[in-house]
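in:
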């Protein structure tokens, strides 16, 4: 679906603000399929992750947000106008799963966070099985995305955003269906283990995305905590 006028307006505003304040740089956005269902799978370091992941992409992106954020009517209406979908706090229940699968069946693009929560220290956290389940059930390509610099600029340790440089890198799509080049899932696994394996593979792809060499202002690349 083409982005609405309101969605396009806020995408331009957020991108301009991020470029001005965080020197936002975006790499390899051409790896994101321009049509059909797509799952964007990103690390989660900041409240700013959802809007920033979508600002460099010209098609509409759907985001999941806690249902409690929609209780205020005006703010809730605005969230819906920028493609935010209310789900329960965990976002991984049966209702949340149905919402995501329905969007993918309609050929939409959805942003999901395999870690399930913001990192407390900037490290990549282990993946939860929910994303793997959705990837396997939907057959949609999964584009790994990594955001650099956002934890330092606006992580859990900061009430307000601070200055810094933010970079977004998009990886090559992964598939978990029977198409050529699809990821091979080990045989003999239970359904839950298959989902966890797929989530771990996606998280590994996120971790393999590294900052560009010329961006020397970055802290050292962080790895998955175990």
């Amino acid at each position: 679906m083409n982005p609405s006028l309101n969605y396009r307006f806020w995408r331009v505003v957020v991108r301009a603000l991020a470029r001005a304040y965080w020197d936002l740089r975006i790499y390899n956005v051409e790896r994101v399929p321009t049509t059909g269902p797509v799952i964007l799978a990103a690390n989660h370091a900041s409240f700013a992750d959802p809007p920033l992941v979508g600002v460099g992409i010209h098609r509409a992106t759907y985001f999941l947000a806690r249902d409690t954020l929609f209780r205020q009517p005006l703010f809730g209406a605005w969230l819906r106008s920028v493609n935010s979908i209310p789900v329960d706090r965990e976002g991984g229940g049966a209702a949340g799963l149905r919402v995501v699968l329905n969007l993918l069946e309609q050929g939409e693009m959805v942003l999901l966070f395999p870690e399930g929560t913001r990192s407390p220290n900037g490290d990549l956290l282990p993946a939860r099985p929910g994303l793997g389940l959705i990837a396997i059930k939907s057959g949609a390509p999964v584009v790994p995305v990594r955001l650099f610099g956002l934890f330092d600029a606006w992580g859990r340790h900061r009430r307000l955003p601070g200055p810094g440089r933010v970079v977004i890198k998009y990886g090559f799509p992964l598939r978990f269906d029977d198409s050529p080049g699809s990821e091979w899932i080990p045989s003999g696994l239970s359904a839950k283990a298959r989902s966890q394996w797929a989530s771990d593979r996606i998280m590994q792809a996120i971790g393999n995305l590294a900052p560009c060499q010329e961006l020397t202002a970055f802290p050292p690349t962080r790895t998955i905590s175990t």
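note: The chain has seven helices and seven strands.
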